[in-house]
Amino acid sequence: MSSLDKSIGMYINSINRKILRFLSLNLKKYNITTEQWSVLLSLTEEDGVNQKQLAKKVDKDQATLVRILDILERKKLVIRKKSTEDRRSFLIYVTPEGKKLKQEVYPFIEHLFTNITNEISKDQLDLFIDTLNKFEKNISIEEKKISKK
């Protein structure tokens, strides 16, 4: 029997690294990293969220997210405003420049993914995404078991 870690875990990790390298190379011309892009994209889908909500949504720890937001703010792509409900909390908003960048980058990224999913049917992609969702669900279940110990 072959190792599931080698056949699944390592292969997913390898493909993930290749996709990230591919995206990083292609995002350079927009002066944005894949991590910055994921945060910006998330904010364009739900503007005005606090850092804690955003960290959970983009699956980043608070310190990493703060560094990404600092960079995005320096690039004038996002702005942080104090929350009127909780003065210790900041809400993050996409600036017009950030929205413009999203409008430029999003179709480009979609085109890249169209190319890398070439010759993969919609049914295969749906099954793949469903399988990844099950992986994520099972990992969450296992993480909860561990955190209870």
Automatic annotation (TrEMBL):
InterPro entries, sorted: HTH_MarR-typ, WH-like_DNA-bd_sf, WH_DNA-bd_sf
Pfam family, one: MarR
Stretches assigned to the HTH marR-type domain: 1-137
Molecular function via GO: DNA binding; DNA-binding transcription factor activity
Gene3D superfamilies named in the record: Winged helix-like DNA-binding domain superfamily/Winged helix DNA-binding domain
Signal peptide stretch: none
Keyword annotations of the record: DNA-binding, Transcription, Transcription regulation
PANTHER family: TRANSCRIPTIONAL REGULATOR, MARR, TRANSCRIPTIONAL REPRESSOR OF EMRAB OPERON
Record-given protein name: Transcriptional regulator SlyA
Gene source species: Clostridium coskatii
